[in-house]
Write a structure and sequence with these properties.
single chain; 225 residues; mainly alpha; Four Helix Bundle (Hemerythrin (Met), subunit A)
Length: 225
């Protein structure tokens, strides 16, 4: 963080935290595509990258441009500068931007742990005909959607690194879509797995831990995670 702050101070024309966040999000979504390809090899489908359900597909059409802007806008802030109008940040704080970039790196590292913990059960959307094993260990013993929680944190940190009107708008849409998608998935999981998932849901938080004690199922259960 100290190195980032030094670059920001001595080369004020370049937003190095924005460069880090832009590259980080590029790596994030490149990893997602790699997981999609791996799932296609192992399960014969692309992890619901394009969900079979109509609403899921419609949401992808909205979400994909959001992801693209999430990667592009921070990189533009570094290579082009502050930019005019909606591209111009509402405030500039090198120290805050460096801290946000450091937290984003930590959130990305934690997401890698979550992806590894999900293993073969990792999916991107809802497929009514797909059944995967419930993952309730590691981060999933405390929150039901740790990847969504970390994605929210990554977006919030991006908004601090680049507080432009356009980036803030992109961030708000992404955060709202994550909230909606998490609730849709939970409704589907309750229908699919009934009481097993209800118990898991009652003992864990959606994005924030409900308790310091990890969830421990009474018996082995299987369902989509």
């Amino acid at each position: 963080m100290a190195t980032l702050l030094a670059f920001s101070v001595f080369w004020p024309g370049h937003n190095y935290p924005a460069l880090i966040v832009g590259l980080l999000m590029g790596a994030y979504w490149a990893r997602v595509l790699k997981l999609v390809r791996r799932t296609r090899r192992m399960a014969g489908h692309g992890a619901n990258f394009v969900p079979p359900e109509p609403l899921g597909r419609a949401l992808r059409l909205l979400w994909m441009p959001i992801v693209g802007l999430w990667i592009i806008l921070p990189l533009l802030a570094f290579f082009v500068g502050r930019g005019p109008g909606v591209l111009a940040p509402l405030f500039v704080s090198p120290a805050l931007a460096c801290l946000a970039a450091a937290i984003a790196v930590g959130a990305f590292a934690a997401t890698l742990v979550c992806w590894k913990r999900m293993g073969k059960s990792w999916r991107m959307g809802i497929d009514p005909g797909d059944k995967t094993q419930l993952v309730c260990s590691g981060p999933y013993a405390y929150v039901r959607h740790p990847i969504y929680a970390l994605s929210s944190l990554l977006m919030l940190m991006t908004m601090l690194v680049l507080p432009s009107p356009l980036m803030l708008g992109v961030g708000v849409i992404h955060l709202l879509l994550l909230q909606w998608e998490a609730r849709r998935e939970e409704q589907y999981l309750v229908q699919l797995h009934g009481e097993d998932y209800r118990i898991y849901r009652s003992r864990t938080g959606r994005f924030v831990p409900r308790s310091l004690s990890p969830y421990a199922p009474l018996q082995s259960v299987t369902h989509h995670a």
